[in-house]
Amino acid sequence: MLLSLVVATVFLSAGVHAQTTVIPSDSFSSVSRFEQFWNYLYPWGSDHNGSGRMVGSSSDHSHINPAGGTLTLIATPTSNPVPPTSTANPNPAIHYASGAVHAKSQITVTSTQSWTIQGEFSAPTVKGTWPAFWLTAVQGWPPEADIGEWKGTNNNWYNTFNTSAVVRSDLVAWPADLSFHSLKAVLTAESNGKDVRIDFYMDNALRATQFGAGFVGKAMWLIVNLQMEGSSGSPGPSGTTTYKARNVLVTHT
């Protein structure tokens, strides 16, 4: 017992920080568990920059279905949407009803708090499908960091937006068979106290390192969404499209 106390004291004095779980890996086990940690739709509502309009609520899980440990987002073609175009720039025509969720907790990297965001995903990669797992600014824009973004090809895009023109992107091959693969981002403040280093992993292998200029102290939303067309091309699928996430875990130290 004395040895254990001594070891613990050494670790603490050496600066090892406890890990805090913000979103547990079982948050998609049921609707009630999901609603403890996630909100329906985007933080700003139902529309964004593609042709999918997000639909879902505590009483409607036809497009946002958390069950059995897996979140399933479902996009289906729609007709006569009201309004007929997205309310967000660049105001594309709405062709699909789909799903998006965002975490209730915001992600803010500081000089004393780093974050790890991870999960496993089955992502469609056909033309016209645009799923994502990403961070975006609570106030203004940027920052933005895309941990998972699939734009109608068999690649995952890791992106960090410092401005609309200053963007770092790294593409990694992604299987087209809808099998699950893990993604992870580790966000740590740089020694200058302003910038954030982002290490991106796929299947536990480091695939890219990017830097967010001025990201320290900026609150960000964590979003999982199945957008359609837009940057992934058109026309999109004529039938049902699904995007699945499981074992999403968010921690900070």
Automatic annotation (TrEMBL):
Q: Which domain of life is it from?
A: Eukaryota
GO aspect biological process, one term: carbohydrate metabolic process
Keyword annotations of the record = Signal
TM stretches of this protein: none
- Ranges of residues in domain GH16: 16-253
Q: Which residues form the signal peptide?
A: 1-18
Q: Kindly give the InterPro entries that the UniProt entry links to this protein.
A: Beta-glucanase-like, ConA-like_dom_sf
Question: GO MF terms on file?
Answer: hydrolase activity, hydrolyzing O-glycosyl compounds
Q: What name goes with this protein?
A: GH16 domain-containing protein
Q: Which organism is it from?
A: Tetrapyrgos nigripes
